[in-house]
Amino acid sequence: MYTVFIIGNIASGKSTASRYLESRGAFRIDLDQMAKDLYQPGSEIVQRLAEEFGWDVLNADGEVRTGVLAARAFATPEDTARLNNIVHPVLMQRLSDMLVTPFCTAGYAAPVLSVVEISVAADFVEAFNMADEVLAVTAPLELRRERAIARGMSADDFDARASRQPSEEELQALATTVIDNTAADDGLFRELDAWLADRGLSDMRRPR
Fold first, then answer.
1. Helix 44-53 with 77-99: angle, nearest 10 deg
2. In principle, which of 44, 46, 53, 204 could form an S-S bond with 25, CB 3.0–4.6 Å?
3. Least confident residue range of 13-22, 36-45, 130-139
4. Predicted confidence (pLDDT) at residue 66 exceeds the cutoff of 50
5. Cβ-based neighbour number of residue 86 at 10 Å
6. CATH architecture of the domain with range 1-26+112-208
7. Paired residues of 138 in beta bridges
8. Is 32-110 in CATH node 3.40.50.300?
9. SS3 for 2?
10. pLDDT beyond 80 at 109
11. Would you say the CATH fold of 32-110 matches that of 1-26+112-208?
12. DSSP letter for each residue of 144-161
């Protein structure tokens, strides 16, 4: 099984790329969603979050109030490190299990390609050794801003989120392969088709 991590800043086309590869037959993992799935009421990780950031980060049903947690956990770099120290070890183990264990123990063949979509790449560099390749999907800041606003995000919201993300140059430095998504979907799909062909992965749906 070939494993690629896909990284990219907001409105870069990262999610579009991940879903396109999924449509071609890849097994896709959304790391953001996996992290949210850890926040189960009564779980050890939720207990630790409440102890660290205050019990009022939970509602009356014991569910994480994500807005309250985010306000506290991202207030300073030190607070973010506290959050990461709780969540990341569990998330990394879950990711490793998702990539390896189900296919080894369930008695069926692993997918030809696994795709892991990662929104905050710099926070997960320690996981990159699980991948055969790290692919960055990039586009200029102003173009990404236009795209985000066109799909309903406010300009202020985009600017606030983008300010907390690395520059395109910094993001590319984390990757082994870079795809320029300035041309948007059709151009992106052609680039991804070429990427698949270069790695002999064009026929993922064909039995092997």
1. 170
2. 204
3. 36-45
4. yes
5. 19
6. 3-Layer(aba) Sandwich (3.40)
7. 180
8. yes
9. strand
10. no
11. yes
12. HHHHHHHTT--HHHHHHH
